[in-house]
DNA sequence: TCTTGTGAACTGGTTCACAGCT
DNA sequence: AGCTGTGAACCAGTTCACAAGA
């Protein structure tokens, strides 16, 4: 036992690198496809191909979860699905609340594929009286003031912010106060939250601007200019 | 001249790191806010705060664009906006086509803040006859078969895929064939495209699964377990 | 013989800390 | 005196290449 005392870096308790965690759901999706095709086993090469990553990276990613492959053979599809799902917390269903019943909020409520991944939209909230009481994919829109009650009722830890940018910080403050500890932010705003709260941000406009940057470079012929310096 | 021949890494022609490019739009947003507040100048510290990054990172990011600050003073808000905007290709308006007029496609068409960032939704396409002809935020939904015509008509280089996962690869193939060179993919599918085409992927379900992972760890008390190994 | 699992090298990105300029 | 711009140290993540094992 004492042998390994200092040999391990700092991943003592299986803290998986962020980059790996973000890819696990992709692997899970690829495995679901393989399973649907009737495959019961697969190699790292096949799975990597289906997930669009390099095989070595895939193997390293999976190695963080444990050794669930068989050398010379590959991975058992069902076994691997089970272990990745467990690691991602899919043994339980996570009830989430969506704040903002505008176009994006509606799109999210209706998004299929949440259910199969352990995510359930438990409630949708809005401040606009015109929206309150309407039905979004089977969930009734409730007043934002119900936030605390909703969080309590469903034991909600994860919230989605789909409001205009101006409203986002106020909503985030209320979410934190209500006890939410993870926020997915679609509003074009930088949220200020305590360190104990995890925030992920998705900005549709930013994604397009990054693409515009690449187009711009392409258009001005920057691609093969690596030798310029030697001239 | 010969002095520098091999001293430079490979950024000869101002190829900005991907991570930096992804942050430039955030800086632009923060600068817009400062400008709206009547500020004409700002320090790296203030801007970094508003953008939610560390000041050294901000300065390094900006240094890739050139030296547009003044030592001892800071940055001129208007000047910096101009240069970041130019680098991101905002001197022109990018017409984009959205494929898929479902909930997400509708949300994207209606998304405000595209216009101010040089993005214009030129067309929305769908295969569903029930959707064709309907109006989405001022844009009429056209049949998917019009793709080539639309790309030609507007000179489109950037497309958004907002279809179900099963349809995504077929759509991507058609986009590439029509001459599109950048794709923003919202469909839960791994797109196979030629190397010359840039793809960015946003998967709503993945983002939530990553949050669920963090919640799961929190719940099982993994945070302060770094000493476990020494015991 | 085939494929996993993983040290080791490498690459890209972040942070530090200070020289250089105003 | 103050703030930018940037080399240098550092850290995370990726890829390589091969030993270990079915």
From TrEMBL, chains A, B:
SMART domains the record matches: CoA_binding
Protein name: Redox-sensing transcriptional repressor Rex
Binding site for NAD(+): 100-105
Origin species: Aeromicrobium halocynthiae
Gene: rex
Keywords: Cytoplasm, DNA-binding, NAD, Repressor, Transcription, Transcription regulation
Family (UniProt): Belongs to the transcriptional regulatory Rex family.
Subcellular location, principal: cytoplasm
CoA-binding domain segment(s): 89-190
HAMAP family: Rex
DNA-binding region: 26-65
Alphabetized InterPro entries for the sequence: CoA-bd (IPR003781), NAD(P)-bd_dom_sf (IPR036291), Rex_actinobacterial-type (IPR058236), Rex_DNA-bd_C_dom (IPR009718), Tscrpt_rep_Rex (IPR022876), WH-like_DNA-bd_sf (IPR036388), WH_DNA-bd_sf (IPR036390)
Role of this protein: Modulates transcription in response to changes in cellular NADH/NAD(+) redox state.
Subcellular location: Cytoplasm
Quaternary structure annotation from Swiss-Prot or TrEMBL: Homodimer.
């Amino acid at each position: 036992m004492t042998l390994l005392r200092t040999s391990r870096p700092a991943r003592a308790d299986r803290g998986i690198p962020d980059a790996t965690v973000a890819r696990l759901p992709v692997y899970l999706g690829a495995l679901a496809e393989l399973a649907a095709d009737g495959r019961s086993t697969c190699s790292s090469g096949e799975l990597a191909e289906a997930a669009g990553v390099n095989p070595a990276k895939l193997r390293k990613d999976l190695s963080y979860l444990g050794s669930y492959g068989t050398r010379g053979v590959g991975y058992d599809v069902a076994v691997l699905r089970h272990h990745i799902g467990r690691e991602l917390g899919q043994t339980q269903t996570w009830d989430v609340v969506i704040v903002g019943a505008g176009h994006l909020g509606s799109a999210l409520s209706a998004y299929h594929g949440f259910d199969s991944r352990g995510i359930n939209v438990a409630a949708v909230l809005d401040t606009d009286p015109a929206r309150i009481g309407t039905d979004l994919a089977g969930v009734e829109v409730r007043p934002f003031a119900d936030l605390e009650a909703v969080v309590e009722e469903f034991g909600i830890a994860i919230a989605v912010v789909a409001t205009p940018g101006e409203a986002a910080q106020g909503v985030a403050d209320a979410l934190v106060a209500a006890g939410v500890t993870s926020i997915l932010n679609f509003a074009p705003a930088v949220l200020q939250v305590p360190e104990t709260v995890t925030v992920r941000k998705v900005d549709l406009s930013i994604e397009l601007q990054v693409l515009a940057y690449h187009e711009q470079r392409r258009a001005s012929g920057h691609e093969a200019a690596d030798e310029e310096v030697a001239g």
